Amino acid sequence: MPAIDPIPKMPLLTQTLWRGTGRDKLHYPSVLDRPNLYHFNWAREGLEMALRALGLKPNDEVLLPAYHCLSMITPVLRAGGQPTFYPVQADTRIEVSELSRHITARTRVVIAPYFFGFDQPMSAIRELCDRSGVTLIEDCAHALYGTPGGQPVGSIGHYAVASPWKFLPVTRGGCLVVNDPVTHPAPKMPAGPTARAELKDGLNTLERSMDYGRLPLLNPFLRPILSLSEALSRRRHSTQGVEADSRPLDESIAWADPPPAPLSRVGRWLLQHSDRMAQCELRREYYLRLAEAWRDLPGATLLHRRLPDHVVPQVVPLTTRNPRDFAAALLSEGIPVIRFGGQLWPRTPPQTCTNAPMLSACVFQFPCHPSLTTAEVDSIARRVRAILLNTPSGTPSPRDYGRSAEMEQP
Ligand SMILES: Cc1ncc(COP(=O)(O)O)c(C=O)c1O
């Protein structure tokens, strides 16, 4: 079994978080409540399916933020579009006037994310897109709940995509919402998963939780089944060859993932049966706990000091002035960290946005998901604080950009 961090980076299945089905839909609206919702394994698949449904032509441009992750670029390449970029502010806010300057006659689609779950002027972005005859994909990969755009999340774009797997205890789970089905076509759904894939998905979810000591009562019964399933899967994979990819390096990344596929029924069941109120309130509580502990750190600042009532954050983003040493210390301490945007697409024009390389190198995101225990949250708070107190707080030079990107990014 591979070594795992002692503190889980992503949500796990626990005995308590999936009880109160559907509570408080009004208080915390969700992308999962939207009509015309299509479940896939990942949000990138939802993006690809929306772009394919629009029938992009080779020179059609898809406008993305200069601060992005590769899973936002690959769907554009796979659907045959041309990624182009708009700048973001130093706090990741999208300036509508700046976005407007980057829309050209070839722009077909704008992708606008709620970075880390925080506010964006999404309604104004929608108005701009409507005026320009461009499709808006509201990217809710970091915002499954709340109203960070002033209206229920996932209701503003012509399409919306989300990553429930980043919020709920499922090993995979992405979705696409078609908000304007009269003008914007629905995806053509591929065939559903086989019974074997269904079973594997359920077992993977249980196994991940048990690896971190959750669900202790199930452990003695399920371990032998999981070992058998792992052995069978190893045998199957050892007989499959891997085909070399002859495309240029920066495009071949687009073809590394399998084709889009619908989410398993097990996954969909888990998404529908989580305790929403507990999920949202605990996330907010843990965010505030970490934010309080890191309010006056030397060499690092919170990207968002305030947590508005309508925001359910995905993570706690922290900006450090010494990313190289900070990254090395986090790795050696085994502190769970997420690096959205740690690696920008190599063809992103550097002149588009001076903030993007800085955000990419310097913003580290820490988990605040509700399957953490209070002791785990406090341990992250204390150990990050100790690292920063012992790290020289330098000014990052352009040489540092990208150096800290080697850490895993979900
Ligand atoms: C803003 C944003 N959009 C889209 C995606 C793709 O999401 P997924 O990993 O579910 O494919 C990600 C992935 O991290 C993301 O951060």
UniProtKB/TrEMBL annotation:
Lineage: Bacteria, Pseudomonadati, Pseudomonadota, Gammaproteobacteria, Chromatiales
Coiled coil stretches, renumbered: none
Zinc-finger listed as a keyword: no
Protein name, per record: DegT/DnrJ/EryC1/StrS aminotransferase
Keywords, ordered alphabetically: Aminotransferase, Pyridoxal phosphate, Transferase
Amino acid composition bias (Basic and acidic residues), ranges on this chain: 400-410
Domain of life from the UniProt record: Bacteria
A single GO molecular function term of this UniProt record: pyridoxal phosphate binding
Biological-process GO terms, alphabetical: polysaccharide biosynthetic process
InterPro entries: DegT/StrS_aminotransferase, PyrdxlP-dep_Trfase, PyrdxlP-dep_Trfase_major, PyrdxlP-dep_Trfase_small
